[in-house]
Write a structure and sequence with these properties.
The structure holds 2 protein chains of 2 kinds.
Chain A lengths: L19 H5 L1 H29 L6 H17 L4 H24 L7 H23 L14 E4 L2 E4 H23 L1 H11 L1 H6 L4 H24 L8 H16 L4 H21 L3 H17 L14
Antiparallel strand pairs in A: 1-2
Chain B lengths: L3 E12 L2 E12 L3 E6 L5 H8 L5 E8 L2 E2 L5 H6 L2 E4 L11 H8 L7 H11 L1 H5 L10 H14 L4 E5 L7 H17 L2 E5 L3 H7 L2 E6 L2 E7 L7 H9 L1
Parallel strand pairs in B: 3-8, 3-9, 6-7, 7-8
Antiparallel strand pairs in B: 1-2, 1-4, 4-5, 9-10
Helix pairs in contact in B: 3-6
Chain lengths: 312, 236
Amino acid sequence: MRPRASPVLRPAGFDPHGAGPVLALFPQLVVSGIATGMLYALIALSMTVGYRATTVVNFGHGDMVMAGAYAVFVLLGSGMPFLPAMVLALALLFAFGVLTQRVFMQPIIAGPHLSLAIMALSIGYAVRGGARLEWGSEVTTLTRPYPQDAFMVGSVVFTTDDLVISGVVLGLLLALFVVFHLTPIGRLIQAIFQSQRGAALVGINVHAFHGMMWGAGAALGAAGGVLLALIVPLSPDMGVWTLLRGFAAMTLGGFGSLHGAVIGGLLLGIMEKLLGFYVSTVFIDITAYLVTILVLLIRPSGLFGRQASIRV
Amino acid sequence: MPEEMLVAKGVEAGYPNKQILFGVDFSVGRSEVVALLGANGSGKSTALNTISGFVRPLAGSIRFDGAEIAGMPPHQIFRRGVIQVSQARDLFPDMTVEENLLLGAWVRGGETATLLEGLYRSFPRLAERKTQMVRLMSGGEQQMVAIGRALMGRPKILLLDEPSGGLAPTFVNEIAAIIATLKKTGIAMVIIEQNIKLALSVADRFLILRDGRVTQRHDISAGAADEKEIVRSIYL
């Protein structure tokens, strides 16, 4: 699945047959890569929040992203304006994330890692199955709540999609930064991330916290799903695509690192565009796999991760 | 014996496929210090973790201030004032000393500033290091932070799991002095210690656990304990 093509605008002096275009397009590719990477960053961050809380990788997370996009689609269909629909969809996915963790994951949290992985995967498949029942292989789209346009700054084309996605993700990242670093609840979350046993020793209900963080992860993922649905068609299988990108960005940034997830997402977005243009368009689809394989082989802790055992 | 505050009766507990405690009975009175002694694997830490809710009992009763707490989750037991200092300390390593201490008061609240001020008076070393990251501190200093963090929760009873474990001798003396001071303030304590001299210096009574059962009980106020005899009872 690839983003829908942006309106074609060519930079001044662009000559498709000359040697110049190869380098002239570099800034354009980086800008487009950053916009896509912002989306990956948000999805990787949403996966990391759940992982940091429970040390369980949610292999069903991609389907939460898909569910968020469909929730907005349904609410828009009922006549609700875009912004309230998005807020309500995020709230619904938060509740669904909490419920999933408390009802399905918590009872088996002390069990074998494989059981947790299969449970998360099965919940994801069940959500996907539900979406297929309703929409089958029907491909639908979300109507943008803003005009689709493009304009140039110097030799670089910016689309409104790029700006909206980057703006919303930056806004969410800023809000998360403020909550994590400048509020008492953020200090508490950081403390629990650092030592769950320590948190229990100071009287924190760590199980409830696990649920809240899975909820927060699902809501953030849903935000990613809504933004993604602005540039790609909606389909019940879009979760697979997002999970792979999110997983690759997490791996690159370092498992469990919040800022690593953001930087990993941005780098993945840029790499996809550069390799897709300079090497082969095939790389747009396989960069995420290659990054995952290479990072796990060469530097399993990623760019900012610490060596730690993880529960899958 | 002072009024009973914590009463454990017939406690059986353990982990999946491995029962550790087999009908443990003991009680702790108000302002009393009880030491649990025993060899490695005798069930001392499991007993403490069962009281604080980290291990679910299989059978038996644990009453605190007259209410049944057996099987409650740790955060509910903490709220009643039963606060543990774990063997691994379990501090927040990438936070400062003061941040760790303040988190100790997060749930039970109280006059946090006054609590902190009082704590710094009792632990001047923590006041000197209050802006230091905990992971950069020595084991002895970390143990002080762990005890300080527990005190910020205003405990009615403090459960200390090997407070001198793995510490340099100078720190062992310092920790022993801290525990002796705490005893004077009237906080009830259950203390697990491999350092028998330290345990006997602060305890009013001690129990010896062996293979998950209480094999001996001794009231120190009733007569001086023979340290060599205790060691023989534990290990032979």
